[in-house]
Specification:
single chain; alpha+beta; nine-stranded mixed sheet; six-stranded mixed sheet; 21 helices; 18 strands; 53% helix; elongated
């Protein structure tokens, strides 16, 4: 305890300069803890949103939106549709018996013709008249915050009659164990945690360590003096740790206060595609413990390690003895990390993509952490080797002085360059995650396909659906009937349409004769072996009165070259085109048949078509091929959070550079003064300062770009996507690295003062 008290007394009574340094340590720790709190709050925000989603789930909902239960006092249907890139959720409810407790956020369930909407949907309804078709009825109230995942959610409860919800099931209550459409899927959340750990937490650990070692040289000389006065080794380390822990603890309190302010402001303004309620951002007890205990514990460890040299050999510290060269064990994490990364890259290049995703889920994050920590620990070794080589070969005075200084003090490069090096490394890794996300849930074709189960489409409304404004063409698809008791269940797929309808769907239709069946041949697609000319397949039909017919369709010899522009070919090769005239009037297939509509993929057209379909029947479930509204929302959230992580990483990297470079310049004032008194010009001194920072930083950035691209490629190999190598992002990454070098060079120029103070040498 006496050593801790001594450390605090030295802190308060050791002069203005040390008090300023202590204040900088507190501010730096506060910035770091604030960034750490942001990262730790993200899982809590997502969990709070999913909890509210689960509490409002109808107990009758399944993945298709209809109910499975057979008892209850109501009916319900869940419909999820894209509104641009956002999901619009509609819950159709109808009470058939006793009262049902309303879900959170509603005072009561809406009756037939009544609608409760979210505040954002209320605003959109006043601007978009067509949107009212999706939520038909009179608006009787707004859904409160308890019933919404986030303030901007598009959500509605639509009252309906039991006759309108024949396709639904029995509703008894609201509330489920989990959310059917979570804000972020658990597997994607693991990717987010993994990426944020590399983008934010690794640079953050370095930044907090840098803040804990401000003015390390002068502090070591002061601690060495205490050791020479008789203080024990452990006591010397505790004196140093007391100061760093005090700064870290005050910084933690300051950082948590700053996070509270940031959470209140940003939650109200929102991020692109992601908003939350301020209460959701409240830190959990575990997160508070990490900030208030973990950060001071890290400072304690760094302080004890930093004072180890002064405690062990105080005379060498006081006499400014030459530091021992860094040992090669610093390369130890880099070697196995690169081995894993190279192994995955080779596997992807040779086509031997790993299939054991559970093993890769452990090995890949381990490789990323090993490479990242290896970059940090290898910088002093590489800096010293480069400095020695350049110093021997150069004839430039400025470069020679800079390299000799880096040779005797290679640890300086670690403090100055590490934050920026890790930032570039993390940027490449983040790019890989974004590439993987861009490969899913995105319709890149020029047309949009809408598919509806034919059983859900009333016969009297089928014609109106095909005439919705924006719809180019339509067709009915159905498989032939198969005997459930037969072991051999062969069937063919049929497209029921005229040649004109087919031309409206496809970009290539060759040799189509109106009124004549034909096989559709899709170039490059596997041919359906069951579709052999002369084979006969039955189709079971039914009309509006419930009468049934069976029509046998013989596979014709005539073929039609076919190709459409949908995200995945709408028709399989070997499917049979059947003219509608071949079936009796008023009859249509009754088993697994679907009605397909086609339009342009322009967002305005897609929105107009969905509104038109809802105008015919708002309860019809529409599958928008290639567009998953829930997945698109998840990708938007993930991209926003990754962008937030990159911004935090940029703040941490730049702050670490500014703190370390400024502190290093202050620590080197005696050496700069000595060189100035010996006749060195200010221009020479500035060149020395820039070279000392830029060269080791350039080496670290080259290594970061190379290892980052390798880590990115290995991540894509293990991700199961179609893209393994991304050369398009390399120019941006290299340009970013060059920009970092330029900023570092410009930032180093003002760090050499113009005033020469000989007192610095005398006092030293």
């Amino acid at each position: 305890m006496s050593e801790l008290v001594l450390g605090l007394r030295l802190l308060l009574g050791s002069g203005r300069g040390n008090r300023v340094r202590f204040l900088l340590m507190v501010v730096g720790s506060g910035i770091g803890v604030c960034c750490l709190a942001v990262v730790l709050a993200i899982p809590g925000i997502l969990a709070a949103q999913d909890a509210r989603k689960a509490a409002r789930e109808p107990d009758c909902s399944n993945g298709r939106g209809s109910c499975l239960s057979t008892s209850g006092d109501g009916l319900a249907l869940t419909r999820l549709d894209p509104y641009g890139s956002e999901p619009l959720t509609r819950i159709f409810v109808a009470q058939t018996g006793g009262p049902i407790a309303p879900p959170p956020g509603l005072p009561e369930l809406p009756g037939p013709g009544e609608v409760f909407v979210s505040p954002r949907l209320h605003e959109l309804l006043s601007r978009d008249s067509g949107l009212a078709r999706l939520v038909p009825g009179k608006e009787v109230g707004l859904i409160s915050a308890q019933g919404l995942a986030q303030p901007d959610e598009l959500y509605a409860y639509v009252g309906a009659s039991p006759e309108e919800l024949k396709g639904g099931g029995h509703l008894s209550a609201f509330g489920w164990k989990w959310a059917r459409f979570p804000t972020v899927e658990p597997s994607t959340l693991d990717i987010l945690r993994f990426t944020l750990a590399g983008v934010v937490l690794l640079p953050l650990a370095v930044f907090l360590s840098v803040c804990a070692r401000l003015s390390a040289a002068s502090r070591m000389r002061r601690l060495a003096a205490l050791r020479l006065l008789g203080l024990s080794r452990k006591g010397t380390q505790r004196v140093n740790a007391a100061e760093t822990v005090a700064a870290a603890l005050l910084g933690a309190v300051l950082g948590l206060g700053a996070y509270w302010v940031v959470n209140q402001l940003v939650a109200r303004m929102g991020l692109p595609g992601f908003k939350w309620y301020p209460a959701d951002g409240a830190l959990s007890g575990t997160a508070l413990l990490v900030c208030l205990v973990g950060c001071p514990a890290l400072a304690w460890f760094v302080g004890r390690v930093g004072a180890k040299k002064a405690a062990a050999n105080p005379l060498a510290v006081r006499r400014s003895a030459v530091e021992k060269p860094p040992r090669l064990w610093g390369l130890l994490p880099l070697v196995p990390g690169l081995g894993i990364v190279i192994g995955y890259c080779v596997a992807g290049a040779t086509g031997n993509v790993p299939t054991d995703t559970s093993f890769s889920a452990i090995l890949m994050p381990l490789a990323v952490v090993l490479v990242g920590s290896g970059l940090v620990l290898s910088l002093p070794i590489l800096s010293r080797a480069l400095a020695r080589t350049v110093a021997r070969a150069t004839s430039s005075l400025s470069l020679g002085l800079a390299m000799r200084r880096n040779e005797v003090e290679p640890g300086g490069a670690l403090r100055v360059a590490t934050g920026l090096v890790l930032l570039v490394y993390a940027a490449s890794l983040t790019q890989g995650v974004l590439i993987e996300l861009d490969q899913v849930s995105k319709n890149t074709s020029p047309v949009q396909l809408y598919t509806m189960a034919l059983d859900d489409v009333p016969r009297n409304k089928e014609g109106a659906l095909t005439k919705v404004p924006g719809v180019r063409s339509h067709a009915i698809q159905a498989p032939s009937w198969t005997d459930p008791d037969s072991e051999e269940r062969t069937s063919i797929n049929a497209v029921i349409a005229t040649c004109d309808q087919l031309r409206g769907i496809a970009s290539l239709v060759g040799n189509c004769v109106e009124g004549r069946p034909a096989r559709l041949m899709v170039s490059g697609h596997t041919y359906d072996e069951a579709s052999k000319p002369g084979s006969s397949f039955p189709f079971h039909l039914r009309n509006s009165e419930g009468k049934r017919r069976v029509v046998n369709v013989r596979v014709p010899r005539q073929t039609i070259k076919y190709h459409d522009d949908t995200a995945a070919q709408m028709v399989s090769s070997g499917a049979v085109l059947i003219p509608p005239s071949l079936f009796p009037a008023g009859f249509r297939p009754e088993e697994r048949a679907t009605l397909s509509l086609l339009s342009s993929s322009a967002p305005e057209t897609v929105r107009s078509v969905l509104e038109g379909i809802a105008g015919v029947d708002a309860t019809i479930e529409v599958d928008t091929d290639g567009v998953d509204a829930a997945a698109l929302q998840q990708i938007t959230v993930i991209k926003t959070l990754l962008a937030l992580g990159m911004i935090l990483g940029l703040i941490i990297g730049v702050a670490a550079y500014l703190v370390a470079a400024t502190d290093r310049a202050v620590e080197r004032r005696p050496q700069v003064t000595a060189l100035a008194l010996l006749g060195a010009r200010p221009r020479t001194l500035r060149s020395v300062q820039v070279a000392q920072v830029v060269l080791p930083l350039a080496v670290g950035l080259v290594l970061a770009v190379v290892t980052g691209k390798m880590a990115e490629s290995s991540y894509l190999v293990t991700g199961g996507g179609a893209v393994f190598w991304d050369g398009a992002g390399l120019p941006l990454l290299v340009a970013s690295a060059l920009g970092v070098v330029v900023v570092a060079a410009l930032g180093a120029l003002p760090l050499v003062g113009r005033r020469i103070d000989p007192e610095l040498i005398r006092r030293d």
